[in-house]
UniProtKB/TrEMBL annotation:
Subcellular location: Vacuole membrane
Transport found in the keyword field: yes
Annotated keywords: Hydrogen ion transport, Ion transport, Membrane, Transport, Vacuole
Known role: Subunit of the V1 complex of vacuolar(H+)-ATPase (V-ATPase), a multisubunit enzyme composed of a peripheral complex (V1) that hydrolyzes ATP and a membrane integral complex (V0) that translocates protons. V-ATPase is responsible for acidifying and maintaining the pH of intracellular compartments.
A Pfam family the protein falls into: ATP-synt_F
Quaternary structure, from the entry: V-ATPase is a heteromultimeric enzyme made up of two complexes: the ATP-hydrolytic V1 complex and the proton translocation V0 complex.
Membrane-topology annotation of the record: Peripheral membrane protein
Gene3D superfamilies found in the cross-reference section: ATPase, V1 complex, subunit F
GO MF annotations in UniProt: proton-transporting ATPase activity, rotational mechanism
Record organism: Rhodotorula graminis (strain WP1)
GO annotation, cellular component aspect: fungal-type vacuole membrane; proton-transporting V-type ATPase, V1 domain
Protein family according to the UniProt entry: Belongs to the V-ATPase F subunit family.
Protein name, as recorded: V-type proton ATPase subunit F
InterPro entries recorded: ATPase_V1-cplx_f_g_su, ATPase_V1-cplx_fsu_euk, ATPase_V1_fsu_sf
């Protein structure tokens, strides 16, 4: 691993309460100087809050992976589609109430385009 990525040790999460709670119980939570690596999204969460969390987590140098519920990613799809950095790796995940749809996944779309299947 190159030195520029050695400090990327955290997994950040943007998702519904069940997803975030499960990942926090699994040990992914981190709180330092008031900065946390997770955001709980519900039906009342403004899109601007989701966008701000996405921007913060993708710019932080301590985050290696950003997990986002696919139905939350749909709310900020233009930002997700525009994101092309390798780190933090962006992974869309299902939630209890919203099944995963591979046709919406930005990473799978990029892979299909790379192989000429798009």
């Amino acid at each position: 691993m190159t030195t520029q990525y050695k400090d990327r040790t955290l997994i950040a999460t943007i998702g519904d309460e069940d997803t975030v709670t499960g990942l926090l119980l699994a040990g992914t939570g981190h709180l330092e100087r008031g900065k946390k690596n997770f955001v709980v999204v519900d039906s009342k969460t403004p899109q601007s809050t989701i966008e701000a969390a996405f921007a913060e987590f993708t710019e932080r140098s301590d985050i290696a992976i950003l997990l986002i519920n696919q139905h939350v990613a749909d709310q900020i799809r233009p930002l997700v589609e525009k994101y092309t950095q390798a780190f933090p790796a962006l992974l869309e995940i299902p939630s209890k109430d919203h099944p995963y749809d591979p046709s919406k996944d930005s990473v799978l779309k990029a892979v299909r385009k790379l192989f000429g299947d798009a």
